[in-house]
Design goal:
Elements lengths: L15 H20 L9 E6 L5 H12 L3 E6 L12 H11 L2 E6 L4 H8 L4 E6 L5 H15 L6 E5 L6 H10 L6 E5 L8 H9 L4 E4 L10 E4 L10 H7 L7 H4 L5 E3 L20 H6 L1 H12 L4
Parallel strand pairs: 1-2, 1-3, 3-4, 5-6, 5-8, 6-7, 8-9
The structure holds phosphoric acid mono(formamide)ester.
Phosphoric acid mono(formamide)ester (CP) binds next to α2.
């Protein structure tokens, strides 16, 4: 089933049927990845335009394209592109459309993905737009939850940390809202609570959620989604220093519990490294799942899945 859109900028454009089809194709892509490579996208070129730092998203997009037999053009850092000289995002997208068959872009400004998609002449994927959305991360998060928990319906999901600026929790909340009988515990400092646009969405969908500053409220959940405080979104660095590391997950907090621990990474101290060896520490498996999910999206948006 082809996706009913050309560009992916937000998880709000996805239906449950879309997400389940992406998960289905991603499971097939895991088999391709285990075998090594396919030539499904031979002759196709991905432009990976990363105007904000990234390790996982850029590398997994590039790996995904290479494992499907395609090629990759990469641009990193606004200062090394003509955006720095004042070129508009729209003109940059028209140009990238001349060079590539599909574009993935990360940009520091919320809303930049919609501007880019409106100008792109080839399929466009939002790889993170400031504090806005990160739809491919949310899809790999959902894929991970399905694999780790066996289901998505009926889960209790705790989200912890910087819920205000963390785009991954915004995108994931919209996606989880497509499923049944979920409930959320939202743990954050009062300065970094979930934006009203997301809590309104949960209310509209009659999804129960509790907001708290106490991480203990999330330890009984099925999934605990940890996040870092987004240093790069703070104008006042003293405020960042005051708010960072209010929640640190330690081994005794989760050892022997059923809770699956996720984190979009990078972590900067929110999860102690001694947690890594626990069976419920799923965050590195989660990062690895970025490859089959992005393979699925590239193939589906290029009409080849
Ligand atoms: N999760 C994520 O977006 O990581 P990167 O910033 O390293 O791409």
């Amino acid at each position: 089933m082809p996706l009913p859109f050309k560009h992916l900028t937000s998880t709000k454009q996805l239906t449950r049927a879309d997400t389940e089809e992406i998960i289905r194709v991603a499971l097939e892509m895991e088999k391709v990845r285990k075998k090594g490579k396919s030539d499904l996208l031979k002759g196709k070129v991905l432009a990976a335009l990363f105007y904000e730092p990234s390790t996982r998203t850029r590398l997994s997009f590039e790996t995904a394209m290479l494992r499907l037999g395609g090629d990759v053009l990469t641009a990193e850092g606004i200062q090394f592109s003509s955006l720095y000289k004042g070129e508009s995002i729209e003109d940059t997208m028209v140009m990238a459309s001349e060079y590539a068959d599909i574009i993935a872009m990360r940009h520091p400004d919320q809303g930049s993905a919609d501007i880019a998609a409106s100008a792109s002449r080839v399929p466009f994927i939002n790889a993170g737009d400031g504090p806005g959305q990160h739809p491919t991360q949310a899809l790999l998060d959902l894929f991970t939850i399905k694999k780790e928990c066996g289901t998505i319906d009926g889960l209790h999901v705790a989200m912890v940390g910087d819920l205000r600026y963390g785009r991954t929790v915004h995108s994931l909340s919209y996606l989880l809202g497509l499923y049944k009988n979920l409930r959320f515990t939202l743990v954050s400092p009062t300065e970094l609570t979930m934006p009203e646009k997301v809590t309104s969405f949960l209310k509209e969908r009659n999804i129960p959620f509790a907001e708290t500053t106490d991480i203990a409220a999330g330890l009984g959940a099925d999934v605990m989604y940890m996040t870092r405080v987004q240093q790069e979104r703070f104008a006042d660095k003293a405020e960042y220093e005051r708010l960072k590391l209010q929640y640190i997950l330690t081994k005794p907090m989760v050892e022997g519990k059923k809770v699956v621990v996720l984190h979009p990474l990078p972590r900067v101290g929110e999860i102690e490294t001694e947690v890594d060896a626990l069976p419920n520490a799923a965050y590195f498996r989660q990062a690895g799942n970025g490859v089959p999910v992005r393979m699925a999206l590239l193939a589906m948006l290029l009409g080849k899945a």
